[in-house]
Design brief:
Elements (H helix, E strand, L loop, with lengths): L2 H51 L2 E6 L5 E2 L2 H6 L13 E2 L2 E2 L2 H17 L3 E5 L8 E7 L8 E7 L1 H30 L4 E4 L5 E4 L1 H6 L5 H7 L14 H9 L3 E9 L2 E11 L5 E7 L1 H23 L3 E5 L5 E4 L1 H6 L4 H5 L4 H10 L9 H9 L9 E7 L3 E9 L5 E7 L1 H23 L3 E5 L5 E4 L1 H7 L3 H4 L5 H8 L11 H10 L5 E6 L5 E8 L5 E7 L1 H51 L7 H29 L7 E4 H11 L1 H6 L3 E6 L5 E4 L1 H17 L6 E8 L3 E8 L6 H6 L8 E2 L5 E2 L3 H11 L3 E7 L3 E9 L2
Parallel strand pairs: 24-26
Antiparallel strand pairs: 1-2, 1-7, 3-4, 5-6, 6-7, 8-9, 8-12, 10-11, 11-12, 13-14, 13-17, 15-16, 16-17, 18-19, 18-22, 20-21, 21-22, 23-25, 26-27, 27-31, 28-29, 30-31
Helix pairs in contact: 18-19, 19-24, 20-22, 22-24
């Protein structure tokens, strides 16, 4: 083979090889295209199946306005042929209404321009069907096609309308319920699944002192304070766990006051919890008050003297007080058994504490009717063996129970019997009294009188039995009085006793010369007792005594005047005797012998004593008159009195001590009379002391009183003699020298002390001396 042939063969082989490779490539490409076509066909079949089974039917609106739709959709719109444009959806008398077609066209145009999807519900003409048209632009074109899915929502629309009506109804109910909850006077709230507050009403807001409900929810303001009795969320948690409402009684602070609330938490199906609170503070207070009242009532019933027993609606004894148990001999162990009504009666019968009856079962059956008795209490009287009288009161209770009260009236019956006896005795006594007695009622009528009363006034029995009024009685008896006008006192006294409840009396003279003392005495029952006592004899004796007293007073006045005149007359010679004796003692008539000087000293002592006696007698006759009041320094007065008796003290060689404390102070009185009081006390003590005796003058005081004490260590006196020292009419006292002296000093001292409002006391014992104490008030 030549080279050319070889090259040609090689070229042919290369061409064949290229053809084979190209064919293989073509075969591979064809097989792959065939596979892709099969896959596309399968996808088309699947899409066709989906479109066929889809609840929606698609239609395509191209960019130029032309539409493509399947025949089923043409039938859905009620058209005979498929329309070319959107406007063709509205044919004469078929398809959509022009308005719906226009709206769909506007929605498609908007979707093509802005790409915004739309949803529109349309109704074919003369059809009850509702079609939902949902359109969306196909991406990829500036003015792309729009795919519209058409859903038949006729059934769904009906359900939607029904649900819309239901929603509207429920919305109205919710609004009403919300308004009711908001207007509710009790706090209400709603908690979410996390148990946090989500809604509260106005009452809740007011209870926690918040400004708005949003503030309460935002801050989680709880109505219930956390305490030992419970926490705000404990009830809600328990209610949700149990699946049933939980009720608690918890305290809360509302309006600054502590209140008790009944809190109810109600679990909801959503896991939320609703709640509300009822203020039961007043109810708790009422319950507490009722409990305390019941306890107090039972305590009070235990203190009653009457027996009380209470039976419940089941006719079981629920309460009995101590008097009931004692009265019917009820044992404590019987009470623990809860005795029934019939059993209680049987126990009473066993204790012989029931009336004796022939038919006890019938009697007991009648007493059972007390439980269903008519309104009002039933009363009976039981006469028990042994003379006991009981008043039984049976009161049916509203709850079907029974209350029994047993009052022991034995003492009242005995007292009534005794009263009847006393009335008979009183009547007999009343009629036989020497006093004239009449009883006038509160209305002024004469009710009772004795025979003496009628005889005194001399009125007929026929007049008395008419029970005349007090005015008529006074007119009837006025002519029997010495002064008829005095009869008006009878009505006045009766009215004072019956109306004013005051006792008044007086005297009245009868025309026949009799005298009566009368009085009107108020009685406890409102009546008046008019009493009359014949005082004719005592009246006569009184007149005689009065005349004698007047004569004695005149004689005493003359005696006093005579004594006063004699006292003044005696002072003149005494003054002369005293003056001449002093001149003799002073040596004016020459030096006297020792014995003559002693005689002159005796004369001076006697004249001094006689002058004092004359002054004392004069003062006694004046009876303490002429007391002058002034501010008196009592210590100074005491010094003056002590200096006055100092000469006599020295003559008798008496140990005289004077103690005047600074507390003596000042008093209101007559300085001269107080000095005379101290002088009389000192001279009285000096008269009983032998030479060398001891005499003490002491004074002190307090803020209210001043005190003067004169004591001596003389022979003292027995109690009988000491009692007569202040009696100015007593016999003269025996002096230590054996002389009898008039005791005018101490009576006069007491007279002056009492005139100053003070007191004087004397204490003396034989051989122990005498102590006289004077107390004077500061004012």
């Amino acid at each position: 083979m030549t080279v050319l042939e070889s090259e040609a063969a090689m070229a042919l082989g290369a061409a064949l090889l290229a053809c084979l490779i190209l064919g293989g490539i073509l075969i591979f490409v064809g097989l792959r295209a065939r596979g892709q076509a099969a896959a596309v066909q399968r996808d088309n079949q699947r899409l066709q199946t989906l479109l066929a089974t889809s609840p929606a039917t698609a239609m395509l609106v191209r960019g130029d306005g032309r539409i493509e739709m399947p025949a089923a959709l043409v039938d859905s719109f009620g058209l005979a042929v498929a329309p070319a444009t959107i406007a063709g959806l509205s044919a004469d008398g078929a398809g959509l209404t022009p308005d719906d077609a226009a709206l769909i066209g506007h929605d498609v145009d908007t979707a093509q321009r802005s790409g915004r999807a739309f949803h529109r519900v349309v109704h074919p003409v003369d059809s009850s069907r509702a079609l939902m048209m949902c359109g969306q632009r196909i991406a990829g074109e500036a003015r792309g096609a729009v795919v519209i899915w058409v859903f038949d929502v006729t059934d769904t629309r009906t359900e939607i309308d029904r649900l819309a009506n239901e929603v509207a109804r429920l919305g109205g109910a919710y609004d009403a319920l919300t308004g009711l909850i908001e207007a509710a006077p009790l706090p209400m709230w709603y908690r979410g699944p996390d148990l946090r507050l989500q809604m509260v009403n106005a009452a809740y807001v007011d209870a926690v002192d918040a400004g708005h409900a949003d503030e309460v929810v935002a801050n989680g303001l709880e109505l219930i304070d956390g305490s030992d009795r419970g926490s705000p969320l404990a009830g809600a948690t328990a209610a949700r766990e149990r699946g049933s409402p939980i009720e608690q009684v918890l305290p809360a602070t509302i309006g600054g006051a502590r209140r008790m609330l009944r809190v109810i938490d109600v679990p909801l199906a959503t896991g939320s919890v609703a709640g509300f609170a009822v203020d039961i503070e007043d109810l708790e207070q009422a319950k507490s008050g009722a409990k305390r009242f019941a306890e107090a009532q039972r305590g009070m019933l235990d203190r009653l003297s009457a027996g009380v027993a209470q039976f419940g609606a089941d006719r079981t004894l629920v309460f009995s007080n101590q008097p009931f148990q004692r009265l019917f001999a009820i044992r404590p162990e019987w009470l623990a058994e809860g005795m029934e009504f019939d059993r209680v009666l049987e126990r009473m019968r066993e204790a012989n504490r029931l009336p004796e009856v022939r038919d006890f079962p019938g009697w007991k059956r009648e007493r059972r009717d007390w439980f269903v008795g008519a309104e009002g209490a039933t009363e009976e009287s039981w006469h028990l063996p042994g003379g006991t009288h009981l008043r039984v009161v049976a009161q049916s209770l509203p709850d079907g129970g029974l209350l029994l009260i047993f009052e022991d009236r034995t003492e009242q019956v005995q007292l009534a019997s005794a009263r009847d006896t006393l009335l008979r005795v009183r009547t007999a006594t009343f009629d036989n009294l020497f006093e004239a007695l009449g009883v006038f009622a509160a209305d002024g009528r004469l009710q009772l009188w004795n025979n003496r009363f009628r005889a005194v006034w001399g009125v007929d029995e026929a007049f008395m039995v008419r029970h005349p009024r007090v005015d008529a009685f006074a007119n009837e008896v006025a002519g029997r009085l010495a002064t008829p006008n005095r009869a008006g006192l009878i009505p006045e006294l009766v009215r004072a006793a019956t109306v004013e409840r005051q006792q008044r009396g007086g005297r009245v003279a009868f025309a026949d010369g009799r005298h009566f003392e009368f009085a009107a005495v108020p009685l406890p029952d409102g009546n008046a007792l008019f009493t009359m006592l014949d005082i004719t004899d005592s009246r006569r004796a009184e007149l005689a005594l009065r005349e004698r007293a007047e004569a004695l007073e005149e004689a005493d006045r003359l005696k006093t005047q005579f004594v006063a005149n004699m006292s003044y007359e005696l002072k003149t010679p005494l003054t002369s005797i005293s003056g001449f004796a002093e001149m003799l003692h002073g040596g004016y008539a020459g030096e006297l012998p020792e014995q003559a000087a002693s005689y002159v000293g005796a004369i001076l002592d006697s004249t001094e004593r006689l002058a004092l006696l004359v002054d004392d007698v004069l003062d006694l006759t004046q009876g303490g008159e002429g007391i002058e009041r002034g501010d008196v320094d009592l210590a100074e007065v005491a010094r003056q009195a002590a200096s006055t008796v100092q000469p006599a003290i020295r003559r008798h060689q008496i140990d005289f001590a004077v103690e005047l404390a600074r507390s003596t102070g000042r008093v209101q009185g007559d300085a001269r009379r107080l000095r005379e009081v101290i002088e009389h006390l000192l001279r009285n003590a000096l008269g009983s002391l032998p030479p060398g005796g001891r005499l003490l003058l002491h004074s002190d005081g307090t803020s209210s009183r001043a005190r003067i004490i004169v004591s001596d260590d003389g022979p003292g006196l027995d109690s009988e003699s000491a009692a007569k020292l202040f009696d100015r009419f007593a016999e003269p006292q025996l002096q230590p020298g054996g002389e009898r002296a008039l005791g005018t000093g101490l009576p006069l001292a007491r007279q002056f002390v009492e005139a100053h409002g003070g007191t004087i006391t004397l204490v003396s014992e034989p051989g122990q001396g005498t102590l006289v104490t004077v107390e004077l008030p500061r004012r």
